[in-house]
Amino acid sequence: MNKKLTTVSLLSGSSIAAIHIINKVHTSLCTVKNLLHNSENYFYDWRFGKIRYQKKGKGSPLLLIHDLTTGSSNYEFHRLINNLTEEHEIYSIDLLGYGLSGKPSMTYTNNLYEQLVSDFIKNVIGKKSSVIVTGESVPFVIMACHNNPEIFRKIICINPQNLYLQNQIPSRQTGLFKLFIETPVVGTFTYHILFNKTSFETIFRNEYFYHPEEIREKYIYNYLESAHLDGYHAKYTFASYAGKYMNMNIVHELKEIDNSILMIGGEKEKDIKTTIENYKYYNAAIEDVYIPETKHLPQLEAPDAVLEQINMFL
To answer: Measured between alpha carbons, how far is 154 from 151 in angstroms, rounded to an integer?
Structure first.
């Protein structure tokens, strides 16, 4: 019996050690290109960690906020930034847990990001700012605008998250999945299986772009690097995201804010017209426009068309 236990222990230990090595190698391969580091990076020492941002241009402040999906970073807006700098002072950030920003081992929530955006505008920009925000980051911007109306001008939302999905709260199942992903070695290994080069290629083809021939390999590598920077710490935002800890109900706040809001939808994004109509139901002042033959990231797939709408609105 003791021999069997010893054998099982040795095999288990060897397996865990092998998986740990695989995790290390995979992280190194995903981040070896060092694509996100450049001389234009600045860092804001926020109370929960360093926040990487880029600053360019002169004029009225414009803050760009990426999505909460895994691999997202301010790279999402790189095809827009230089074309906005003539009239705007651009601030493009990596949210906590994403890109080159700090990745503390913690639970990430929409309330956390609401505080981050408000603090960033107050302490870094220092002026009333307009915002462009994508997808599942829209709710915390709406909440921040409601709670701090004096620091927000106009808001542009690209493919906002469905209001029904925002209302989903953590369950026992999603909580257990979060805990599993956060476990050392095995949880990290699972995260690496879920987010590798092939999986990002699939996500871009099926969800982000309508025309797969427009997908550039550098997009895949930038998202891959962002999803694996800082080793196992990179998985914590996904764990909170999948656990539904980033959701919040914003119907009350949406009804009460009176800022000018433009919602830009990718024409081929699933159910986007219904989603935006639901937003307009609660706030009739919202304007909407749709970019033909694009899905979730029209700012990457059709930047000129998105820029045209941004310039007209701002």
So the answer is: 10
Q: Could you identify the residue written with the tokens 């095809």?
A: 79
pTM: 0.92
Number of other residues whose CB lies within 10 A of the CB of residue 272: 21
Helix, strand, or coil (residue 133): strand
Q: Any idea which residue has 């997202």 for tokens? A: 72
> Which region, left, alpha or beta, applies to residue 135 given φ > 0 means left and ψ of -120 to 50 means alpha?
left
H or E segment to which residue 112 belongs: helix 110-120
- Show Cβ contacts of residue 229 under 8 Å, excluding neighbours closer than 6 positions: 31, 36, 99, 100, 103
Write 143-146 long-range contacts (CB < 8 A, 24+): 143/110, 143/111, 143/114, 143/248, 143/250, 143/253, 144/114, 144/117, 144/118, 145/253, 145/257, 145/259, 146/250, 146/253, 146/256, 146/257
Scanning the structure block, which residue is given the tokens 């797939």?
A: 301
Name 184's Cβ contacts closer than 8 Å, sequence gap at least 6: 232
Pairing assessment for the beta strands 49-56 and 88-93 based on DSSP bridges: antiparallel
Mean pLDDT, each 10-residue run in order, the chain (314 residues): 47 54 63 77 95 95 97 96 93 97 96 98 97 97 96 98 90 95 91 94 97 95 94 93 94 94 97 96 96 98 97 94
